[in-house]
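User: structure tokens for this one?
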Amino acid sequence: MTPCGRARTRHLRTRPLARRAQHRRPSAPVPWGIATAFVLAHAWIVLDGVSWSGEIFGDVSLYHWWAHQGFMIGRWPVLDYDWVYPAAALLPIAAPAAGTSGFLAYAVMWSAGVIALNGVALWMLARTPPRGRLAAWWWLLFLVALGPIWLGRLDGVAAPLILIALLQAARRPAVAAAVATLGAWIKIAPGAIVVALAATSRNLRTFVRQVAVPGAVVSAVVVGLALAGGAGARAWSVFGEQEARTLQAESVAATAFSVARLWNPAVRIEYNDVIFTYEVHGEAARQVASALDTVLPVAVVLIGLLAWAAARRRPDLSHDVLLLAAAATLLALIVFNKVGSPQFIAWLGPPVAAALALAGPGARHLWSPPALGMLGVGALTQILYPIAYGHFLRGDTWMVAVPAVRNLALVVLLAGAVWRLGQLALSRRPVAP
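Assistant:
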């Protein structure tokens, strides 16, 4: 056999071995260091959350009341009255109340469920080649930087589901679409992953099989169960409930109003005792909030179209485009949202963590600045809430500056993601699949 033939034979023999090695890598156990860090990080988050009590677990007490009313007198949100959350949010809210009595037991079960779901997401992340362990360390740092706010909110359920969907997107897009759709019926944000999956589908057939059908099946089950329970039109009540809101005080769009308090005493932040949140008072704020009702869906559609063009121009980078589209869409859901609750920031960690684990060789360096930036955004958010929220409401100069800088960083991150998508969409050299 010639040297060339022997080399070719060795090449053919090693390729299957390489493939098998790649398939074995995800099954590697999670390192003890990451497992220990997970326990320590969540122990600190729980203890910190308990120290803030009402600030962190105030919504959990509301969840407990809803669940208690449902189990005791059969009066459930969505099924019997309009609700501010999508229908499937009943599942994580009702589950901790099964077999428990009293708020303390409910809060313990709620926290355990959120931590367990995040543990599944971290386990999958750490086992994801080629850089899952690095991404797992970053994810834990991000959660610690953000603080305990996500633990006491439905966003603590939504964020791990976003991460799981993104990790499944490359190998099992249909599973990713199903997980993201279920997440969207719990808290709307995971729907951003469905948008990214749709935009980066190779063709109509792939879109139907891998995105539309799984999403439709999950939606049919959720809506069907809600209708069977007597919800009627209330199955969609979440959308009507959001329309009545005005600018939340710490939202990105409220930044100009918040800063104006430093010199204009006429700009006021007032407490809305119907939805239990602080909002900017005045007609101008209501007009901005009304405009955002249109701007937000338009922004999501435009990002989807830009991602579609980028995926068509660079099919060799389709998964990088998907991660960019997911990040850009989730950022848009915050930047153009009249509601700006601090726990929303938890949505932004999953696309960064997934990108640190999965981004292609040409895109790895692009995610380092956003990864560092998101740690800063998380820390500033924790300072805003719960640490110094009272100072922010009083209009203290230093605490007016903190959310302003945080919100500016979110705008910059969104602009960067859209800019990169635009670069790929306008690439001069299309690459064949």
